[in-house]
Amino acid sequence: MGKPPVRGKTSPYGFFVKMCYEEHKKKYPNENVQVTEISKKCSEKWKTMVDDEKRRFYELAQKDAERYQAEVAAYGGEDAMRKRKRAKKDPHAPKRALSAFFFYSQDKRPDIQSAHPDWKVGQVAQELGKLWKTVPQDTKDMYEHKAQNDKDRYAEEMRHYKAEMQKMGGALDHFDDEHHGSHVVHVDDVGNPLIN
Fold it and tell me: Where along the sequence do coiled-coil regions lie (predicted)?
């Protein structure tokens, strides 16, 4: 495996919130922490603090930025960070199962988009989320049933897919449509694929 990813920088406000959270946990160790409540209180407090009170958090953020720069340099610089890519997905792997909410969204998205053609994707998604919370239980059950069927489909397709991979020797990085998926790529080392 490669080097571990570099943890991002923490802002002064991020350090402040972390401190508030830790202090709350010390004062009330047996209480479940409501993140939204603490976040709201932290935000209100941060807005009323003077620069002198915020200074230590800015100093912590500066030290963290230095740590980040050192880790990035050790990793190989910003270019190396950008070049790190996700593993390619097998285009022939089964499509993941959809949730009940996703099925609901597929049905209702066109209605919302036609009612609000100027809305951005995020606004449409927010509206779908609000509507989903108000959907009657029998309607939700219908979508849950669709989701369960899709989950069963995915599980079955994955069983077949994994069996195919084992038949191919388990060294399958991707399929080729030609020859009905019999094209196997073994990667012995990066940049030197051996094609069978």
Answer: none
Look up tokens 């449509």; give the residue: 177
97 phi-psi bin (left φ>0, alpha ψ -120 to 50, beta other): beta
Average pLDDT, stretch 78-102? 79
12-83 CATH: 1.10.30.10
Q: Which two tokens stand for residue 176?
A: 């080729």
Instruction: Please state the pTM of the whole predicted model.
Output: 0.46
Among 1.10.30, 3.90.1340, 1.10.10, 3.30.70, name the CATH number for the domain at 100-195.
1.10.30
Instruction: State the pLDDT at residue 186.
Output: 39
Which residue from 131, 104, 37 is spatially nearest to 123, judged by alpha carbons?
A: 131
